[in-house]
Amino acid sequence: MDDNAIRNIVITVVGALLIFFGICGNSLVAIAIWKKNYLRSTANYLLLNVALADITSLTFLPLVLVSIYGKFQQGITADLLCKFLISVHIPLTANFAAVFTLVVLSVEKYHAIVKPMKSGFRLREDTVKYAIIVVWTSAIAMTLPMYIFGKYARYKTKLFCDYDATEDAMSPYLYVLAAIVIFIPFIVISFCYFQIVRELYFKNKVAPQNVTTAAEDNIAKRKLVKLSLSITLALLVCFFPLALSMCLRAYNKEKLKSKYIQDFGSLLYVLKVVLNPFLYAFQSTNFRQAFKEMLKSKLCPCCK
Prior knowledge:
4% strand, transmembrane helix, GPCR_Rhodpsn, Rhopdopsin 7-helix transmembrane proteins
């Protein structure tokens, strides 16, 4: 067995385990927010959307292996498979939705903590659904060219999912995609959390009349900010390298040169999705309580 075969086996096994735990963990998060009234808040609905995006991505991600190891006859059927099923298009759409959701979450926390008097800019439980619709619409719009131009093509001796567009047409799109999905979100999120941390930890405040209530409120805000920030940092560290490598590979027709880089980026991304539920559990008392109640009811139905 050669090194390439061993590498493929290791990546497949590790990836399968991470995908399994990622789907289970994020499903637990989604069910917890859906079932527990004390978890129903604007911020948690946004986190629910991130969890659902991660589940969607992980569900379709294994199908990419079909395009790697499977062989198809070039034609309409193979093109449709590449557009919608055996490519990274749906996982990318879901991930872009997760990125945009975290941008919305950071802006929401910014207005709640730094600009609390401007309530008109805040999301409410009855309006957060519109923000989520905009998030998914934007994610679909950003990946729409991939669905339109995706095809099953031959390059030299290799058959794989590619795009029916010239490099001159794809390059501007990839640059715009990188700017909107990677760099602009990074700038917006960094600005919002910098201002939030500055407001909570470094800014001098007038002493409130009810010191105890103010202190408890401040602690709750800090916990929520830590949770949101940790999820965002996990996304930055684990997803953006994959997005960048995919843009570079799409731009470079020598598809196999950076395969190790993309494999590493793919595993990093799946690791991020697996980490999210643990971040919820370790940094949120309410999520820990919900997980305990749900697991207890499943493992011991009589222990309620």
